[in-house]
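User: Hey, quick favor. My workstation is busy. Could you predict this chain's structure for me?
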Amino acid sequence: MSETKPSVLFVCVHNAGRSQMGAAFLTHLGGDRVEVRSAGSAPAETVNPAVVEAMREVGIDISAESPKVLTTEAVQSSDVVITMGCGDACPYFPGKRYLDWTLEDPAGQGVAAVRPIRDDIEQRVRGLLAELGIQAR
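Assistant: No problem, here it is.
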């Protein structure tokens, strides 16, 4: 891990749902004690509106976020890479910590279906913060 603060990259295919929620929770709960990125192997045009609404319900506004393309540089500059259903699209670098979070894809689903995915991601992020020695806000 970097001397200053750990860096975490969330990756999913479209960077429109799961990885956006993971990044938003880590930013919200970890504050400036962790560097957060998210990206997709095949980014969508916009963040899933049901995901935006589900996050708004818990007081986190991600309406200004936009999907970003996964780059080799993003992976290289991260201490922890969390994949969420992107398969082999994520480049692998020895020495990085990789976690694969198996989560249902919220694409095409309504807010009611996104809520349990959101809540699962929040619990996983809280666990990650504990592993990193960072107290959640």
